[in-house]
Each structure stands twice: as C-alpha cells, then as structure tokens.
Amino acid sequence: MALKTETMVLNMGPQHPSTHGVLRLELEIEGELIVNVKPHLGYLHRCFEKHAEAMQYNQVIPYTDRMDYLASMGNNFGYVLAVEKLLGIQVPERVEYIRVIMAELQRIASHCVALGTNGADIGALTPFLYLFRDREYILSIIEETCGARMLYNYMWVGGLSHDIHPNFVRRTKEFTSYFKNTIVELDNLLTYNKIFIERTANIGVLPAETAINYGATGPMLRGSGIKFDLRKDDTYSIYNRFDFDIPVGQGLQGTVGDSWDRYYVRVREMEQSLRIIEQAIDQIPEGDVHSAIPKRIKPPKGTVYSRVENPRGELGYFIISDGNTNPFRVKVRAPSFVNLEILGELCKGHLIADVIAILGSIDIVLGEVDR
Amino acid sequence: MKTAEEIFEILKNELGEIILSIDKDTPTEPIISVEPLKIHIVSKFLRDNSELQFDSLMCLSGVDDANGKKVKDNEGYDVIEGGTLSVYYHLYSTVLKHKITLKVSAPREDAKVESVENVWKCADWHEREAYDMIGIKFLNHPDLRRILMPYDWEENSHPLRKDFKVPEFYQGMKIPY
C-alpha cells in the first residue's frame, strides 16, 4: 500500500524579515517543496486613490511619494507627466534635464536597495552595507537640492519645487565617477560569487511569454530576455536624446529569466543610468524652473493614461478629469503589484529557501503594492 | 502600428453589434465602448488577431461614474441611485507597438462584467481590486475575493464608490479611532 501523503500549510509573514515589508505568504508545502503560494496583501493599504479624489491636482504629489518610497522621484515624474499631458503643458528644457537626472539618480539608489537586500536575504550581508552607504551618497545629493531624503515632493506640475543647489552638478559628477568602482566591487563581491550563483541561477525561471501575459515589466521582463524599456519603446520626456543600452538577461549562469538574470539586469542598468546622467549633467540649459507652473490646475474633461519606466517597471497613472480642480479618479498601475502576481507561478516546485531568493529578485515595495 | 480608428473599423467589421461606439472627444486617446458581457470575445480577438496582437494588458481600472441621481437614504446620507460603473482596459501590443483603450459600463445596482483573466493573466489581481474597491462583479473569475481591504470587511461596502460611507465600527473597533 502506498504511503498516504498530504500537504502542509506554512505561514510566512507579515512580519517576516525577508518579505520586504508587510506581505503575508501562505505556502502550501509538501516536505520542503512548494506546491502553491498564496499572497495576502493589504497590510499597508491606505486607499491613496480615495485620498486623491479629495485633493487638488498638485496636492496629490506628496501622496505619490509614499507609494514606492524607494523611488519617489519616479512616482512624482509619472504623475506630473500625466497631468501635464491632460493640460497640454510644455515644460522648460531645464526642467526636463533636471527631472531626467533626478529620476536616474533615484533609479540607481533604488537598485542599490534591491540588489543589497536580495543578497542580504540569502546571506551576503557585506554588499548590502556597501550599497546602502552609496545610496546614502545619492540621497544626500538629492537632499541638498530639495530638502528631503526620501519623500521629496520635488517635481511639480509644470516645473520643480526648487532649482538645483549650486553644488549639485559638481557632486553628481563626483558621484558618477565614484560609483563605477562600487559596481566593480559589487561584481566581485556578489554578482560572480559562487554561493550567490548557486542560490539564484536556474531558480524561479520566468519564460518570456508568461512574463508578457502576466504583465511583468521592468527588470522582471528584461531578465527574461525581452528588450523592452519604456524609455526607448514608448519614449517620454527627453530620453530619446540620450545614448544608452537596454541590458537583457542572457542566461549567463543558468537559464534565461532566472533570478540571477533579474539581478544581473539591475546591475547593468545602474551603469546605463550613469551614462545617461553623465550625458545630461553637462547639457543642463539655463532657465527658470518655475515659469511653466500653472497658477490653478483645472484640466479639461477627459481621461489620460500615462506611463513611465520606474526602477521596478511600468508605473502607469490613469486619471479621469471631470473639469474640476480635483481629479475624478486616479488609478495607479503599480509595477510591484503586477510583478508580485507571478510569485506563485515562479515558486512552484522550488524549496522554501528559494522563495526568499525569488522574492528578492522580484523586488517589491509593499507601499506600492497596497497603495 | 494602427490608429484607434483603424482598430475600431476592424472590430466593427469582425464583431459587429457588440462594439458600441468610439469616443474621439478626449484630449488624449480615443476610447472604444464594448458590451460588458461580451468583453471576453473582444479581448480574445484583440489578442489573437495577427493584425492587432494586443498581448499585454497595461492597466485595468474600475471607475464609479457617479452619473445616477443623488438621493437621501433613511439616515440622511447621500447615496447615488441608477447610473453606471465602468471598467477601462488599456491594452498594448509589445510586437506592433500600438495602444487602445476599451471601456465597458454596467448598471450600478447589478454591475456584472465578463472576466478577461484567462486572456491576460495580469487581469486577475486588477479585477479583484476593481471588485474590492468599486464592487464590480467579474463573471467567470476563478477567485473573486477582496484583495486590499480585509477579507471580513462588510459586504457591499466598496471604498472607491463616490457615495461610500465610512462604517462606524470594524470588528468592534471605532472608526475613525
């Protein structure tokens, strides 16, 4: 007679250190193997979208900071672009350049956290500390200009809250030359570390077709070998003026689309962001960053869907205007929310310890998942 | 790459009646309206047709149109009667690089829309969110539960409705605390 086996349910979270916030996973396991993963969300839900309906258009911006709090500049950027599209505003060149530089600095800072925590979750604590040190460098540059480390409220509809600090250009240049060493260091410490490769290569393989069908974007999609980046494919602001590559996963250590590929894409993306910053920083034209800010924001009736490439993927804002000073409806398509949906698919058949490696490689921010 | 008008023509020729209209009077992109209980056929056609190839659903948003008439309920609160709830679908083709926006509207009292979960997998959580926040029921959805609000939140209480009333108590706790 065959042995009777049955699955067991194990609860992970919401206060688990490697779930990057308050995410609860209900794991159905058979021995050490994952049969099914059921994520439970909503622990950080504060209904941003309802708040937005009660605010004027410019008052919504600080709320967007608090969604993906590791990439607030990107959130501001997406929102102001959507409202500007609705209003038909053209912002001054100087504003465009500063916005792009800020968004790219933020992308590096955000990837620093993503890569660091991905390593720290599976036991590599040193690179985590190095990356946080350098993230702090970026945050201090940004802080000097806009006065806040994380929640900036820096990009306004039609302009910026402040012009850049006199030190900004010099310090950003210092940073870009300094940070290249960090990437080399990171490659030596973590990227090609044998233990790290063993833990991530061939783990959580995401085939390209599944990725598209699940709506995965950002490093998630590019890790699966698809060259798709909104900065190039659906270009916005002035990204078409810069020369940069889109790194994709090639399966260098295992299969295309595994956790290591997603990690690797982020590392190479930081280099590309440095390239963009280096090109943009010398070209910032003179001008007034406040000149195009409208006194009163009252867009015409209509809808707009506008998307930007955030560090975690496609951040979309769907705004409906009914011709008032408050938005009628703001819906946010958060990249982490959509990317997290694949978790169950990726974890099937892997070990419990691999769930941590996979979750780290998806790189979620719960503030954005739950909004 | 096709414009929204061309896509509308193709849809109208192939699927006929169930494609209702195209609204070009928007500042950005035109919106194609579809019957709520036929959205699955339309989605499948949009995905599988070789000229269109909409393989990616960018965003699915539930919206309370608040176009009914306002009345007072017995406790003196404003509630909306009649009118519609809508779902907007923003589609994109990663192959052909074109976009389209679809819209379905269902009556507020009994809003039922076909699920497109098995056409685009990412619709799963988006639809759960629309159900949770607005109260639109998606037919044939495999697992239509609340997603952001607690599972034991009062049934028929959906926060993003325009006439949402904050309950006094949740599980014996006073709101606002």
Automatic annotation (TrEMBL), chain A:
NDH-1 shuttles electrons from NADH, via FMN and iron-sulfur (Fe-S) centers, to quinones in the respiratory chain. The immediate electron acceptor for the enzyme in this species is believed to be ubiquinone. Couples the redox reaction to proton translocation (for every two electrons transferred, four hydrogen ions are translocated across the cytoplasmic membrane), and thus conserves the redox energy in a proton gradient. Belongs to the complex I 49 kDa subunit family. GO terms for molecular function: NAD binding; NADH dehydrogenase (quinone) (non-electrogenic) activity; quinone binding. It is a peripheral membrane protein. Gene3D superfamilies: Cytochrome-c3 Hydrogenase, chain B. This is NADH-quinone oxidoreductase subunit D. Its EC number is 7.1.1.-. NDH-1 is composed of 14 different subunits. Subunits NuoB, C, D, E, F, and G constitute the peripheral sector of the complex. Pfam families: Complex1_49kDa. The gene is nuoD. GO terms for cellular component: plasma membrane. It comes from Stygiobacter electus. It comes from the Bacteria.
TrEMBL record, chain B:
Signal peptide: none annotated. GO terms for molecular function: NADH dehydrogenase (ubiquinone) activity; oxidoreductase activity, acting on NAD(P)H; quinone binding. It holds the Pfam family Complex1_30kDa. The keyword NAD applies. Keywords: NAD, Quinone, Translocase, Transport. InterPro entries: NADH_DH_suC, NADH_quin_OxRdtase_su_C/D-like, NADH_UbQ_OxRdtase_30kDa_su, NADH_UbQ_OxRdtase_CS. Residues 33-168 form the NADH:ubiquinone oxidoreductase 30kDa subunit domain. It catalyses: a quinone + NADH + 5 H(+)(in) = a quinol + NAD(+) + 4 H(+)(out). It comes from the Bacteria. Its EC number is 7.1.1.-. It is an enzyme of class 7 (translocase). PROSITE patterns: COMPLEX1_30K. Gene3D superfamilies: NADH:ubiquinone oxidoreductase, 30kDa subunit. NDH-1 shuttles electrons from NADH, via FMN and iron-sulfur (Fe-S) centers, to quinones in the respiratory chain. Belongs to the complex I 30 kDa subunit family. This is NADH-quinone oxidoreductase. It comes from Stygiobacter electus.
